[in-house]
Amino acid sequence: xxxxxxxxxxxxxxxxxxxxxxxxxxxxxxxxxxxxxxxxxxxxxxxxxxxxxxxxxxxxxxxxxxxxxxxxxxxxxxxxxxxxxxxxxxxxxxxxxxxxxxxxxxxxxxxxxxxxxxxxxxxxxxxxxxxxxxxxxxxxxxxxxxxxxxxxxxxxxxxxxxxxxxxxxxxxxxxxxxxxxxxxxxxxxxxxxxxxxxxxxxxxxxxxxxxxxxxxxxxxx
Length: 221
Prior knowledge:
Number of helices: 9
Order of helices and strands: EHHHHHEHEHHEHEE
Radius of gyration: 18 Å
CATH topology of the largest domain: Rossmann fold
Distance between the termini: 9 Å
CATH class of the largest domain: Alpha Beta
CATH superfamily of the largest domain: HAD superfamily/HAD-like
Mean pLDDT: 97
Helix content: 40-55%
Number of strands: 6
Structural class: alpha/beta
Shape: elongated
């Protein structure tokens, strides 16, 4: 019997594309973009790169941007990553269904948790801007815990904090390896949130439950 729901953050409760849209103006000012690349064009390029490569590494996103002709002179990966992390600590857009979904689950008696990879500084800043912290019984950030997905440790620790067995929990996230496969191996029921629409790990079996957004989850169980 399912007694709790645990979530990923980015592309699950945090609207990464709406956030990228907001920071593209500053991105184009910060980096040496091609004269023909408008802010809208930059966002289109970034969205394409993110959808196809976010699950295998930010280095691939930057390479894709360069291949699309975004830059006159491409930044180094360190320059790119430092800028993106700094902006994510200043701008974060929630999905409008995030809080209502969490409220509904809690009202129905489910425990709620969050597991997210990343530094404490960046992820805590996002959570503060998103306003979702009060709706979780447990929040585990890899930079604070000392182990990150796809290790089973964050999932097992979250189950312990919630006072539940892994098989009493579902885990909702967008990443085939870090979210779906990792939670399944830890004993959770995985739910794939199809935000990016790309499944880039053909060797990993897709879960039985796939949703467009987490707003569908309260009606699944």
